[in-house]
């Protein structure tokens, strides 16, 4: 032990290093400012200095959106894992195990059913921390599960998207989840139930090309990256420089691709208002 450490530990007004929590401070990835961890959490993982909306997982999202104590998570559907016996630098099964360990979730899409300001709703949340929120058999099955639950409860299905696209380790089987989810959305529409999409950062690839852009109402969090192909790929293809802010939520709003951009703190009330307009029968008071 160095003399500096001995002196530091001997001072009563300085907490020993081992007692200082690792999450005491959070560095904003946008403005790089250090934010007190408790302040970051109290502000719904939004930077109070620049307004950057941090990525959050399903459990945090459910707690923010649903009425307190009103929701239950749905069991993740069981699907065949590693159907193609895929391996790159690692086995696909090893990647799944690592993702489950780091996120404590079975796969990248989790559903829950509850109420939002008294309105019944089923909410699905994609977790970008789980293999980039990629869409495979499990995500497709979970999406259909969420739509089926909404049909049974006679209420809207709300999906929070966050994905890098289809899951390459499942090949064509991952791409088949695009038409599969589209059929589930058509069933909701046939029953007269709203399908509401909340786009979060980032939403790209096959997810954007399917259920992420098929909502009756398209909402986005501020400055979310939304697109199909990457900006550099597009620029190299068309040989032109793209406009500033291209593929960001505000640009898409200005060009009619989405309906509104809503800050995280206002999402719950906004969703309740939209449900009240589109599905008044979903009110528990009705």
Give the SSE layout:
Blueprint: H1 3-10, E1 25-27, E2 34-36, H2 37-42, H3 58-65, E3 72-73, H4 92-103, E4 109-116, E5 119-126, H5 137-153, E6 157-163, H6 171-175, H7 177-190, E7 195-203, H8 205-208, E8 217-220, H9 231-238, H10 249-254, E9 260-261, H11 264-278
Parallel strand pairs: 5-6, 6-7, 7-8, 8-9
Antiparallel strand pairs: 1-2, 3-4, 4-5
Helix pairs in contact: 5-7
Structure commentary:
The chain has 286 residues and is of the alpha/beta class. It has 11 helices and 9 strands. The protein has a 7-stranded mixed beta sheet with strand order 3-4-5-6-7-8-9, sandwiched between helices. Strands 1-2 form a two-stranded antiparallel sheet. β5, α5 (137-153) and β6 form a beta-alpha-beta unit. α5 (137-153) runs parallel beside α7. The model has no long low-confidence stretch (mean pLDDT 93).
The CATH architecture of the largest domain is: Alpha-Beta Complex
Q: Over the alpha carbons, how many angstroms does the gyration radius reach? A: 21 Å
Structural class: alpha/beta
Total domain count: 2
Strand order of the largest sheet: 3-4-5-6-7-8-9
Mean pLDDT: 93
Percentage of β-strand residues: 15-25%
Note the total helix count.
11
What key phrases describe this protein's structure?
286 residues; alpha/beta; 2 domains; two-stranded antiparallel sheet; 11 helices
In a nutshell, what does this entry contain?
By secondary structure, the protein is α/β, with parallel strands linked by helices.
């Amino acid at each position: 032990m160095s003399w500096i450490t001995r002196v530091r530990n001997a001072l009563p007004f300085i907490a020993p290093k081992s007692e200082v929590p690792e999450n005491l401070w959070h560095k904003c990835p946008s403005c790089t400012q250090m934010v007190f961890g408790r302040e970051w959490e109290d502000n719904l993982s939004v930077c109070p200095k620049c307004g950057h909306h941090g990525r959050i997982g399903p459990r945090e999202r459910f707690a923010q959106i649903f009425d307190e104590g009103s929701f239950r998570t749905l069991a993740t559907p069981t699907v065949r894992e590693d159907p193609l016996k895929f391996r790159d630098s690692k086995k696909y099964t090893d990647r799944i195990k690592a993702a489950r360990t780091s996120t404590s979730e079975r796969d990248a899409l989790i559903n829950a059913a509850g109420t939002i300001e008294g309105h019944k709703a089923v909410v699905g949340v994609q977790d970008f921390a789980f293999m980039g929120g990629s869409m495979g058999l499990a995500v497709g099955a979970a999406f259909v599960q969420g739509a089926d639950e909404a049909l049974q409860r006679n209420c809207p299905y709300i999906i929070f998207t966050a994905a890098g696209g289809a899951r390459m380790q499942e090949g064509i089987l991952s791409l088949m989840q695009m038409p599969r989810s589209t059929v589930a959305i058509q069933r909701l529409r046939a029953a007269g139930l709203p399908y509401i999409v909340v786009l979060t950062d980032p939403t790209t690839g096959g997810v954007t090309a399917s259920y992420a852009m098929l909502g009756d109402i398209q909402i986005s969090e501020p400055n979310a990256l939304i697109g199909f192909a990457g900006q550099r790929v597009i620029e190299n293809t068309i040989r032109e420089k793209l406009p500033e802010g291209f593929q960001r939520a505000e640009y898409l709003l200005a060009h009619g691709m989405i309906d509104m951009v809503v800050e995280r703190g206002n999402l719950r009330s906004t969703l309740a208002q939209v449900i009240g307009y589109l599905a008044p029968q979903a009110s528990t008071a009705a």
